[in-house]
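Might I ask for a little of your time on a matter of protein folding? The record follows directly beneath this note:
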Amino acid sequence: MGAKTIAATAAVAALAGWAIWRGRNVPEDGAARRGQDVAAAAAAAPAGASALPPDAAPATEASARREALDPAAMATTATSEVLLYGSVVDPEGEPVELEALELEDEGARARDASSTMGSYAIGGLAPGRYTLSAEARGFLTRREGFVLPASAEHCRHDLVLEPALSIPVRLLDENGTLIAEEPRSGRLALDVVATPTAPTGSLCGLCREPGPVYGCGEFARADVFHLVRELPVGYSGLLRLRVAPPVYVSVVLLDATLATRRVDGPVSELVFTLERAAIEQRLGGIRARFVDALTGRPISDGKAALDPPSMSSAGGDPTDSDGSATFPARAPGLYELRFFHDGHERVSRHVRVSSGRVDDLGEVPVWPAAKLRGRVLDARGEPVSACLFALPRDRVRGPADLDPADARGVTGWFELDAVARAPLELFVQVPGHALMVRAVDATSGLVEGLGLRVDEGVPVVLRAPDEPVGGQLTIADERGVPLETHMLLETRCVATRVVPGRYQVWLGRAEEVFSKHELVVGSERVDLVVGSGGR
């Protein structure tokens, strides 16, 4: 980034701070005040600052104001880097503090923006088409597409965020008593999820809290560990919507959807009455007996845990004398069964808790521990920070087997202990590089001198426009070993990097795979539609 771009970023931040201060102290109406503030900022903006074309944003009153107030000076020469900046305000002209601001290019490559109260800036951008997504608590998520012209070094794009509904929610039993939660018990609490359509099945999949997946809102649960300041006493939590109604609001117990209600507009509260007996009938459990994989003998002094998706226990409950552990009264859905014992591998395998019963898994083999030592290098041969995890080869079968909670962070040199003394698949993740998967034979108990040099790989964009939000896309190698799994969000688009070769693309939900598609990657960037939209 050049000196002009850096200086412009600082100028934008200073101007935004001045506008916020002035807007809070001048007794004028919001629109007029915002007009003067933005006009003053525009006048002081860097020479060559450019407005986005009028058709780049929705034809709203806010965008009309932005067009009128954009800088008049336009650069006439092309540039290789553009600074994007702007103000972020509500309809009254008050500055808004962003929770997240993401810019995505046509290749589905995303980057976060730096922001302060009421303003943002992103430097070093190539001219082209982008999509900007802005999120702030209490406001509707705004998603706008526009084109950055090559004719200016600086471009202004202001955002006006509209207020969103926040709805207090009561979860009551049949006696009108608020249902208390157990957030630290290991048992999943009731959750409230907003979706754009009526749910037809499980909403969770591989995630523990599905609210953010659907992009409609989040449920802020109120309990002794979480204080929701704007929530009145006597409520279970606050549903903060991020989209305008109509939405469908459901009470879920992991994979069990207990009740659903449609919300068409502002409401003072939502009250769901649930029978305790009906909830109890949905609960299930797991029983397992942990044995040494080589001798078959029970491991009596280990600790076991059953974690919801994307959570990892630091310990667990002691097993009994024959190596058994039972986990009753759990919500139905997908979990990670973990086992810890000195001298053995750290076990992590996905299991499903059925509704209304305790399933016996029988014997769960646990391998004696092995150790891996080596170095991770980037494509230039330099030591690099990476995330590593190693799994026994026969335990890597489906999308749910790749639990990100198992990854261990390293920088350059590494030593992984408590891995299985067995044939392994070693996964190496380095930002900006292709995922590496290396077969490692750890049956000797110690593997040293591993040199793991990752490749930058080839950019791959996979689009699944006809697949449901909340499903997932998995990339597997030619052997059918899953490499990486991505949750499908609103854009239903996945951007990654892989080395040239032949792959499989799986579409499914949780541990299930509904369809498989071939992916061939050469030396050129790949942009492919998969699923029913690609047939």
Summary: The two ends are 42 Å apart (CA to CA). The chain has five domains: 3-160, 166-280, 285-366, 369-453, 458-534. Residues 3-23 form the longest helix (21 residues).
